[in-house]
Amino acid sequence: MTLDDDRPAIEQVLPEPKAGRYVLHLHRNADVWTWAVAVAVAAELRRDLSAHSRARLVLTADDVAAPVYRALSKAPLEWSRIDLAQTDERWLRPDDPDSHAFRINERLRRGHAIGARFESLTSVGRSIEESVSVANAHGRQAASAAVLGMGTDGHLASLFPLMADLQRVFATPEAYAAVDATGSPAARDWLRRISITPSGLARARSRLLLLRGRDQREAFEYAIASGDRASWPVLAALDGPGPLQVHWCV
């Protein structure tokens, strides 16, 4: 299997029976999962680059995506025409090892991908309000794809259940918002953040949710059954053009 091949290696594809708002791809092992996702993302980028001068890729910093990014960095794409964006960021310097920017750059911007242009959500000397304004200027460009991760608590990007201002962020028409994650244990010590919003997610032509292990799959299935976005913000990824592509393996 190579990244020149647009056909992901999928063991089983099961559409959600009622609404058809997501497709569940079940992969037989981690290697197949990794390369299937990398091939799918590369195909979306290649498709956009054939029609537009630039392509944009929105990326989670979730650890689950690390092997996918390493595989994707080997894709022979015109990376100099690709903009890399973030789903979210802690209010940290982009070179801080705890920042999401640091993780994404370390895992993806290597090999062929070294030439991609990175859009950091934070910048030294820029206020959080200014940072959100810059992010929203970038976010007006539709993304070729958004690679997403999910916590077992149902959080997506920096949209956490029980977060102090979740409803405000859900309601904004902007692509990004400053968030206060007070009330969410999963946010740990980093309560001040910038996050993509449901409106921002809906601008991605393709959305891929990466899940690993029984706990994450069961959490996602519980979220779908509940339909409660306040308790399961991951459901915000269902909105957008075409169904959410959910890739899972043990």
TrEMBL record:
Annotated Glucosamine/galactosamine-6-phosphate isomerase domain residues: 34-237
A Pfam family hit: Glucosamine_iso
Xref: InterPro entries: Glc/Gal-6P_isomerase, NagB/RpiA_transferase-like
Gene Ontology biological process terms in this record: carbohydrate metabolic process
Source superkingdom: Bacteria
UniProt-recorded name of the protein: 6-phosphogluconolactonase
Organism: Cognatilysobacter bugurensis
Gene that produces this protein: pgl
